[in-house]
Each structure stands twice: as C-alpha cells, then as structure tokens.
Amino acid sequence: MKTEKKILIERTTENGYVEKEYTLEEAAVVLNKELEDSKTIFIDGTPFFGTELTTDIINTTKKKICVTNKLAGG
Amino acid sequence: MFEELSYCGSTRALLSSLCASETLVQELRRNEKAVSELGNLIDRLDKLQNAYTILELRSGYRSQILILNKNLEQLRYSIYGQTLINKVDLGTSITVHDFKEMSIETELEITKRGDKEIVLTYSLTDTPSGLKIVPFKAKQLVEMSNKDTSTDSSPEIANLFETTRNVISKAKTLAERYHLKFVENLQEPELKFNCNMDNGPDINCMAFGKMTKVIKIDNTRYYTIQYKYKTPEEFLGKTKCMKITPSNNERKIKAVANGIYELNKSVYSYYGVSDTDLISDEIPYNLIDEGRLFVSAKCGGTITTWVSEDPKVNSELYGQFFELLVEKLKESYISEANVETTHIGKFRAINYVTHSKDISGNLKAIKKMVNEYKYITQKKKSIGSDISITDKIKYCNTDGKISYGDFCLQTDSEYMKNEIIEFFNEKILAFFRGEESEESILNASIDIFFKSLNDILSSVAKEAIIVNLVINNKIKVKVEARIFANHNRFFYINDQRINKNEVSLMLKEISCYKDESSAISFLTNVGRIGLAVYMGVTSGYTLNTGSDVIYKFRKLKGRSNYELILDNAVTSIKGKKLLTCLYEQFLNNDRTARELREKIDNIIKDSVMSTTDFLRYRLLIDETYTSFKEQSELVLNRKIEELEGTKVSYLLKKTLKTAILIVGTSGNQYIIAYDSKGSWVFMNPTKSNDTYSDGSYICMVDQSNIKSSFSYDTVIAKLMAVKNDSVIAKQIYNLEEVLGGFENENGEENTN
Q: CA A71 to CA B51: how far, in whole Å?
C-alpha cells in the first residue's frame, strides 16, 4: 500500500521551535503563509528565494524544511 | 483538632494560600481534572454569601483535611486544617468530601438548636475513621435569633428570581405578544385573542427560594431557606431558619401536576403583602428536603406556594420545575381565554387556546411572518439613513458610524461611507434570511471600514489626505497621508509618524480602548518603543517577579481577547489591563519584584474567565519559564549539531560569552556569541587557548515583528544564514560587503 509522503517542518511558534510532519498540501499552505510573513525558508538546509512554494518544490525535500526569521543587514 | 491556618480577604488570596501547599500543587500540576474541580469549588464558594467545603489532600501516609469556610459577615475566607496519619500509603490525591451552603458557624448553630452536642461528624471515604469537626468556634458563636438575616442572597437565588419572574411573565404574554403585534401591523383588528390572568400570579408580590439546609434531629426538621421576595415597595434577599415536626403534615397541599405541589392560603390585602405572608411556614413536614425550590405569589385574594420535587427523589422532574410551572400556569389561566376564529391568508388561527401545546407552533409561524413584515418595513426605512441589522449592530450613513454596543467606528470620508452603506445594504437581506450571523456581519463591516481607509491612503492623490475618525465615541483620531517636496508620502496618526503597513493595525489596537487618554498613551508609547516591541511584549515578555517568569500571549478573535500560553495549557485573558501593566513595566521598571507579582496576579484574577483559569495560571507560570527555557536550549543544541557547529567561548568586550563556531559554505569561520538578550556575529575570529575573540563584526537585524530572544529564534536564523553565507549574502548586505572585503584582503576571488 502506498503511503502519503510527509514533510517534516521545523518552525517557531508561540511555544518555541516545533517539528511537525505535514502532508504535501498542508505543508504548502503552512509554508506559503510563512513566506507571506517574510520568513526565510531552508529546504534541507538550502535557502529558498522564490515567492511561492509549490508542492513540486516541497516534494523535493529529503530531510526537512526549516523556517527562520528573516535577517537583513544592519 | 482543627486549627485555623489562615484567613484571607479575597478569593485571590485564598487561592494563593492554597497554592502554598506543596501537596496540593504537586497533585494539581499533574491532574488537569483536579484543577478544574478545585476551580469550580472555589467559584461555588465565591458565589455564595456563606458556605464551606471540606477537602482532603492525601500524600502518602499523611492526609490533610482542610475546611474552606466563607463567612461574608466577617468579610473573609478561613482555612481550617487537621492532619491525619493513615495506616497505608494512599498516594497523592485531592478529594472533596462535602460542600454546604452555609458558614460552618451557622451549621454549628443549627445543630445547637436541637440541644445536642455541638459536634458535626463526617464519614470521610477511605479514612481510618469518621472525622469529628470539634466545636472550635463554639465560644465565639452568638445565639442565633429567629429573626431574618437581611442580607442579599446568593447569585443562584438571584437567578431563581429571574427564572420565576420569567415564568409568570411568560405565561402572561406568551400568547399575546407576536399575535397582537402582527394584527396591529397588518391592521386587521378582527383577530382577537384574550387571556385571563387577572387572578393569576402577581409579579409584584412574589417570593421564591430554595431549602438550602435541612437537618433532622429526633422528629424535628430544622431547615434554612434562602429566598428573594418582591413586593411593590421592596425587593430583598433573605435567609431564614425554621423548624417543623411531623404533626404539621396534615396541611392542605395538593400535587397539581407532576413534580409540582401547591399550597393555598387566603390573604386579606388588596395591596402588597410582606415576605412573612409570602414565605409560608405551612409547607408540610414531608416536603421539607434539602434542595427543594419554591415559588410563592399573590394570586388575587390568595397566596399560592408551589413546591418542587425533591432533587434526590426525582432529579428529572426537579430539573424541569420551572418549565412544568409554565405549563401549569398556562393551563390554569390561558385556557380560559375566549378566542374568535379567523383566517389570515393561509394561516388558520383556531384551537390554539384549548390545546396549549399548539400555541408554540402557531406562534412560531406568526413570528416568522412578523419578521418578514419587519424586514420589509425596516428595509424601507433604512434607505438613505440608518441601517439596523439588529438592535446592536447599526450603521448611520449620515455620521458614517458603525456601532455595536459601546464599540463604534466613525469616519468623515464620503468614499468610506459609500463603501460601507453598499456593504450594509447587501448584508441586511442576508441577515434576515438567516444566511449570515450578527458576528460575521460585524467582523466583515470592520474589515470593509479598514480596507476602504487603506484604499484612500493608497490612492495616488497629489494632495495630502486627511481622514477624521472617531473610535468608541470618545477617541478622536486624525489619519493623514502627507506629501513632501521629494514626493515621498508619510503617514501620521494624530501627528505621530506611523509606517503605512502599521496604520490599520494601530487603529485596530486603538479600537480596543474605551477612553481617549489610554488610547493616546498607547499611541505615545508605541511612538517611543515602536510597534515591533509592543508586539514583542504581547507575544512574549520575560520578567523577574521574585523568580523569572515569561508572559506569552496568543491574540484571539474579538476585542481584547488573549490566551496566556502556559506549559502545555492556556488561560484565557480578557481585557488589556495585563498587557498595559507589562507594557508599563517595560517602560518604567519602578516596581519591586513582589509588588509586580502581586499586581499582575490581581490583574490576572480579574481578567480570567474562571477561578480554574486563575488556578492554572498560578500553578504553571513558574514552570512555564523553566520548561520553555529547557526546550529552547534543547532545540538550539540540536540545531548546532545538525549544522556541524561547536559550542565555544567568545570574549566580547571583556565578557566571556557562550558562542557557536560554525563554518560557512564560503569556507569562512563565524562566531555567533549570544545570551538571553541578544546575539552578535563575527567572521574569522582569532583563537587564543580555547577562547575566541575579535573578528569582523557583521550586523544582522532580525526583521520579524515577533521575536523572542528567549527561544533563540534569532540565533537559529543567524546560524542558518552564516552556514549558507555565500548564497544568502545578497539578502544581508553587511555580509556581502564583508565577504567582498575578505576577497580583496586576500587579493583573490572567493570561488566558493
């Protein structure tokens, strides 16, 4: 039986950093919301610079996706 | 022997005293059910004038029996305690043994009236023996007189009053209301409906109450009743103690319906009657049971008393007492009405008097028709002037004012008014047809208000834009878009410069304030520390209140609704007092830790929905800090390991800081020194012994509105960024500059 791929996302919430598994569609919603909130997204440690994360892009994840606050030069 | 352990002047103080018990706290922290049980218990105590409860806290071989006693005459709570040693280890638990709706002093008094020993005995489950509450207060007790204690009775009794009043009022108006209104609206007076309630219960001469305590000593039943009564002159709550013997059982009382007993006595007053008349001491012996409810009312020349079923015998009938009473009154008084039969369109108004059950159904049909009629007339009235979605949600187009109770948003912009009236014209239809709720219309109207304001501010006008708003009837706000010589546009609220994307957010925050001075103070404060910090305070603020605590909030839908996030739990917070207090503390750190903790505790007690919520806060707030800190450390360490970093020490301005050494994809080494307040990045530091120092400082700013240094969000963001330095440098210009400088210093291009 084919099992649905789960994407591990690590991101900060009110309760600190949490790791949670999402389906592809759920991950797309969560991550695009994070992009809207100007967060930086790292897919397997590599930063993503686009404006929208499609399920195809998310599907390339091998280990996990990490969401961090956006940094700028001071 | 019981000893008085402490006394407290408020519920908050009582809870604080309880939270000082290590056994209790231990149990509560791991037992959410016990938290809510204890919270509900304190709430029950809080609602009553006089009451006491007996708790048992077990911890291994020891049991502590606590009596929490509320005596409003002495304006205090008392905690009495006694420790028992059990023969076996009974584990840790909390048991509530008893709850009485009278103070322990009154309980002892009642026992004394029976000329018995002033000792109350309780059989406590699983304890070695029954527990005797010895007469520890006996000396101080005053002889109880048979006079009434003219104190306001409990909210429970007040609720009973409302219910009783509604019962009689409902019975009187049930049939007439919609029916007559409909007839009036349609101008078809031939449809007549009468109900004869002239000899029915008089709302102005009535009493109602509950038998709150019954003690049987020998053949006598001593009982306390709490009641409220209303005569045309006064409305009072009282407690009365009475006694009755079986010989008084012959009185004329009859079961008039399932679960309702009726007692009548004549009265020779055409006017008001006193509570002595209304509160019958003629209720027979067999109907004196703890919990029974009664209603007395003057019905013409008679005082009728209706007594409910005993809750212990038939809880179902007891629970339906008021409903059954409505039915009973309808049968007695409405069924005698005269009705003419007529037709209105397809609606046939017949027989609904003789079959009381049909009344509701037919009235519903009439109500629906009346509503439809109302809608048509209301819609006509609303064109070009006020629109009332309900009594609460209104829009006045002349003033440009959306109002909902004391909340309102008002604009002088014609563009906004046009947008809003269009919205309301659409929604009124949806509301009456039941397609949209009051709440959804209110929320959508607020969105439209701010969206249209944003449209104006975003328009490419060549002149300055000024929109005057009034928020909550009192707060005057001037929103401006000023244009400068270089064509730059800046935005101002009451002459305070605000970023454009923060205008709506600021106005929404202001709408949570009810008076102008608080709103102005909020504006000034945000001007001083920035909205980002304000948001930071609301999203997580660490304070030392004796020990370190963290206050983190989650904003909920609605005005000033928050959740205080605790370790594995949340507590709902209403109002802005707590945030304002934390915010003030951020600006002026002038309170001692103890003062601050006490102030915060008091505010939280007033802001939470229930005692359980406050209890949860008290139990978990200290643990939340520790747990959150440990969790944050754990996540950071895991991240360091994943990114192949190493924990080292870094000498920053003569202070040794904890730091992380990490190598970026460009091959450069980075140090991220950090503490609980901030973090600093240095490229290619020097190493001396085991300590790093110097290196090129790279300024990186966390752009997030909500950042908590406590959870190392920024440190993790910096770790991820410098690990990917060559690819992410274009986003962080300092890093790009330093990387470029590094290439120049080495005289070769960095190929990584």
A: 59
pLDDT tens for each residue of chain A, 74 residues long: 556 788 999 987 766 778 899 999 999 999 998 888 778 999 998 999 888 899 999 999 999 999 988 887 65
Residue B530 falls in which region: left (phi positive, over 0), alpha (psi -120 to 50) or beta = left
**CA trace torsion B739, B742, B747, B749 (10° rounding):** -30
Say how far apart CA B535 and CA B555 lie, in whole Å: 10
Residue in B539, B554, B700 nearest the CB of A74: B700
The total of other beta-carbon atoms located within 10 Å of residue B61's CB is 12
List pLDDT tens digits, range B293-317: 888 888 777 888 888 888 888 878 8
Question: Amino acid identity, residue B736?
Answer: E
Is there a contact between A72 and B713 if contact means CB atoms under 8 Å apart?
no
What letter does residue B149 receive in the DSSP assignment? Answer: B
Spatial distance between the Cα atoms of B49 and B359, rounded to a whole number of angstroms: 41
What does chain A come to in residues?
74
- The confidence score (pLDDT) of residue A8 equals 93
Residues of B in contact with A39 (CB under 8 A): 704
Interface of B with A in 421-460 (CB under 8 A): none
- The DSSP annotation for B529-587 comes to HHHHHHHHHHH-EEEESSSEEEE-EEE-SSTTEEEEEETTEEEEEESSHHHHHHHHHHH
CB atoms within 10 A of CB B692: 23
| Positive or negative torsion for Cα B357, B360, B365, B369 | positive
What ipTM was estimated for this complex?
A: 0.94
Residue B373 has, within 13 A of its CA and on its CB side, a CA count of 14
- Which uninterrupted H or E stretch holds B615? helix B611-642
Give, to the nearest 10 degrees, the angle between helix B516-539 and helix B577-587.
80
pLDDT score at B213: 76
8 Å CB contact between B398 and B382: no
Cβ atoms B157, B237 nearer than 8 A:
yes
pLDDT of amino acid A31: 92
pLDDT for B259-277, tens place per residue?
A: 888 888 877 665 667 777 7
Q: Give the long-range contacts of residues B313-318, CB within 8 A, separation 24 or more.
A: B313/B289, B314/B259, B317/B258, B317/B259, B318/B259, B318/B291, B318/B293
Burial class from Cβ neighbours inside 10 Å (0-12, 13-18, 19+) for residue B627 reads middle
Under a CB-based contact definition with an 8 Å cutoff, are residues B499 and B493 in contact? no
Contacts of A72 in chain B (CB under 8 A): 700-701, 703, 731-733
CA distances from B412 to B417, B418, B449, B469, B477 (A): 8, 11, 12, 7, 11
Query: Nearest Cβ partner of B724 from A47, A72, A74?
Result: A47
**HEC string for B336-369:** CCCECCEEECCEEECCCCCCHHHHHHHHHHHHHH
Q: Which helix (H) or strand (E) holds B126?
A: none
Residue A47, chain B, CB below 8 Å: the answer is yes
The closest CB to that of B700, out of A38, A47, A73, belongs to A73
Which residue among B540, B631, B717 places its CB closest to the CB of A40?
B717
- What percent of chain B is modeled with pLDDT above 90? 7
- Please tell me whether residue B36 adopts helix, strand or coil conformation: helix
**Residues of chain B numbered 541-570 and touching chain A (CB < 8 Å):** 552-554, 565
Nearest-angstrom CA–CA distance, B259 and B495: 69
User: With the C-alpha atoms ordered B244, B248, B252, B254, is the resulting torsion angle positive or negative?
Assistant: positive
Which of the 8 DSSP states describes residue B285?
Answer: G
Interface contact A63, partner B, CB < 8 A = no
